[in-house]
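As described in the Methods, two query proteins were run sequentially through the folding procedure within a single session, without resetting any intermediate state between them. The first query and its resulting structure tokens are shown here.
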Amino acid sequence: MADQVPPRSYGNWTKPKTAGLLGLSALGTAVLFLGAGFSVVVTMVSDILNGVLTGLVFGIFLLTVAVKDRHGRSLLKRGSTRVGWLLTRRRGSNIYRSGPLGRAEWGTAQLPGLLAGSRLSEWRDSYSRPFALLQVPATGDYTVVIGTEPDGAALVDREQVDSWVAEWGMWLARLGDEPGLVAASVTIETAPDTGTRLRREVMTRIDPDAPLFARQLLQDLVEQYPAGSATIHAYVAITFSASARAGGKRRTPDEMGRELASRLPGLTQGLSATGAGATHPLTAQELCEVVRIAFDPAAARGIDDAAARGEVSELYWPEVGPVAHQAGWDSYRHDSALSVTWMMSTAPRGNVPSSILARLLAPHRDIARKRVTLLYRPIDAARAAAIVEADVRASTFNLQSTNKPTARSMTAARAAAATAQEEAAGAGLVNFGVLVTATVTDRSLESEARAAIDNLAATARLRLRVVHGSQDSAFAAALPLGLVLPRHLRVPSEVGEQL
């Protein structure tokens, strides 16, 4: 009897770190030396008391950077987030009213926040398929959204699943070679089934001459089956920059539409081998429906009923936003629902199987609508080599800077060395993150939804934390619209990660 091959596992993801002393980052170490030198200068020019006070000020600042919680957030970052939230509430920026009686321009239900200036157009690719092109002028980004029908892993051989995972890794690695590509995201959304599609399929196929018992049985099936059932939708959003290269001229929407029309078929064909199933780019109408339902889940039944009658909802981009929303410190109220968004603070430690996210992605009875978005930022091959070598140097320095290195430091050094070897062998490098949004239509069920996400995160071995002070922005980033949050920050993400 042949020996059985153990299940394949995956891991070795690392969080980039910079070399520093006393557990500080490179920026913190620089502040340490600057503070020590400045304190000596003040002591020489003035007196020792002023020198001690100067050193104390720098010491307090370094303490706020060094003291971190279990999610890796420093005291300085948490304090700045709280101050920013207080200023937002004082200005009333967390409250939004649109429509004829609102404050939005033209009296429309314009999208709020980061999506306020977005524009939507429709083009046709080389296969003559219509596709929506979303433009965000603030960052100069353009996004195309691909709808998929994942095959699922039920009754599928392990070898086939391993092949899908390998093809997905190769597809992500190839994104780093795509000119102008900024980011990609995968959104898995589960929602209650309205039963409209089932009713349409059954009622159009009933034979009027069939026995009364058979017709009554089908009628009961149509009425009772949708209760408790759920639908699953999967989307892949790919974001491109208007500039083909850094410092280059920004291309117009017409130029981007013509270019992406020729590149889109290759991207959709590459997804077919990853287990994504049938793929097709979303049209402008379909994308409007997705966003409209996300902000107002009560509109889902009306849109499904219109589709069952063969009618078009005729939604327009300036009308798909919420009529009212109010962002709270840890929740987001929008139209007929309330949502809470979490972000990944720590990836699973150690090796995990390919099915690690299965329960997190599956429908849950305590959550009306659940959206899990995996965010990817591919790194081109030219930068990847420099990044992995910098990680190796930083991890080696942190390991050798103390006589008693911790187990975490030794693990980080081994992971950095393994990543460098894999990159040298041709593997791609990708920054990734996870956003999870739970939406309930009854505010009294918020606590149950929070508890459900906490339990599901544990099964996925993810450490999630609620996004504080930016629930509306996190909700928008979790939608399949390709928003790249680091490009909207006032403080560069490279600096923020070291504070």
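Immediately afterward, the second query was submitted; its sequence and tokens are:
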Amino acid sequence: MYFADYTIKEIKKILTKIEVNKKIIEKLQRDNRQGVRNLGVKYKNRLKKERERQQKWERMNKREDILHNRGYRLIAGIDEAGRGPLAGPVVAAAVILPEDKKIIGLDDSKKLSARKREKLYEIIKKLSVAVGVGIIDNKEIDKINIHRATFMAMKKAIKNLDIIPDYLLVDGNSEIPLLALTQEAVIDGDARVNVIAAASIIAKVTRDNIIDNYHQEYPQYGFINNKGYGTQEHIEAIKKYGITPLHRLSYGIVNKHLDVKSKKIGDINE
């Protein structure tokens, strides 16, 4: 292809319709026109970023590759969202990714923008072998404590998979207790292992959607922004309006403001 035969506008249009490789970029950068050379720089940077994303996927897939080589086929990643918030449920997800498809861009859900998380959420749901979700509400958290509630949510997520996994990779430093499945805890797994990263995205987006719905009922608490976490905005709202039926009464900050004003919001003991 001879770019000299085309205007810059035409070249831009052509580049959107073809696979731009290193050879094409070199041709762009040799063009006499600055605008065309700028396109070469743009696509060179884009190609570099894509290569880095591919390399990151490969690094984050090493643990799964090792397990596949050992004969494990159905490897489920497990992660949770919502251990720390003052309100709402804790949500866990279990995900089994396909061996023959790459989902580029997986990462710890907290490192991704909301838009990117939601996009990856849809891709994961579409391409995964299986996805399971477990939800434990704030009342159950208050009864058994958040540590136990988190493991309960993880067990529910695994149970809700359409297929039984033969190996679990669990985010964190603790395996799931009293579970008759082969498992392994991976510290910072959501940033190091693709299948755990996928689970972290499913759990985070699922919980965020639940909290966003709460916002419609209790807009004064700013749930749409704080997702139930103890931000200054949220704490000030608790001081002003009291406690909702969604708050975790076993959490010190919430319990501190448990008073008669709570009855204005709802019966906390229902």
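The longest helix spans residues 34-60. We note this only descriptively and draw no conclusion about the first query from it.
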